[in-house]
């Protein structure tokens, strides 16, 4: 019987199959543990099934980005903000269209201002 408590954002390995997965949520109300496999597939275990799994904690895989279809180039720019050097151009002069919310908005707005 497994005595490991599930923790969100922790990786585990099912020792029988070798499958790696991350716990993404633990729902106490429904007694379920939501997981995401290395290939991106989502699944869940109930608490009693979790206790019967033969698992161990595992290191996050080196290429955990695979299910999110991120590559090494994406990782280089993920935290950088891109600010154009020149804000001129055709889009600079676009004015937003006025929004017509209809008569209901005018009635509510007019009733509250009296």
Task: Give a verbal description of the structure.
This protein is of the alpha+beta class and 114 residues long. It has a domain of 67 residues: SH3 type barrels (Roll), CATH 2.30.30. The chain has three helices and five strands, in the order ββββαβαα. It has a five-stranded antiparallel beta sheet with strand order 4-3-2-1-5. The protein is elongated, with a radius of gyration of 25 Å. The mean pLDDT is 77.
- State the helicity in percent bands: 10-25%
Find the count of extended strands (DSSP E, 2+ residues).
Answer: 5
Briefly note the CATH topology name of the domain at 11-77. SH3 type barrels
Largest sheet: 5 strands, antiparallel
| Anisotropy-based shape | elongated
Q: What is the count of DSSP helices, taking H or I runs of 4+ residues?
A: 3
Largest sheet strand order: 4-3-2-1-5
**Which runs of at least 5 residues are low in confidence (pLDDT < 50)?**
none
Strand content: 15-25%
CATH classification class of the domain at 11-77: Mainly Beta
Q: Which architecture name of the domain at 11-77 does CATH use?
A: Roll
Cα(first) to Cα(last) distance is: 69 Å
User: SSE order, as H and E?
Assistant: EEEEHEHH
Can you give the mean pLDDT? 77
**Helix/strand structural class:** alpha+beta
Radius of gyration: 25 Å
Chart the SSEs and their pairings.
Elements: E1 11-14, E2 20-27, E3 32-37, E4 42-46, H1 47-52, E5 55-58, H2 72-77, H3 102-112
Antiparallel strand pairs: 1-2, 1-5, 2-3, 3-4
């Amino acid at each position: 019987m497994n005595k490991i408590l599930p923790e969100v954002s922790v990786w585990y390995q099912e020792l029988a199959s070798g499958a790696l997965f991350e716990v993404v949520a633990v729902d106490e109300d429904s007694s379920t543990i939501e997981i995401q496999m290395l290939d991106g597939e989502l699944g869940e275990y109930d608490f009693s099934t979790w206790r019967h799994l033969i698992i161990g904690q595992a290191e996050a895989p080196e290429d955990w980005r695979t299910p999110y279809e991120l590559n090494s180039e994406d990782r280089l720019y993920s935290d950088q903000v891109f600010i154009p050097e020149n804000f001129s151009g055709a889009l600079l002069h676009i004015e937003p269209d006025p929004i017509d919310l209809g008569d209901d908005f005018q009635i509510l707005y007019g009733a509250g201002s009296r």
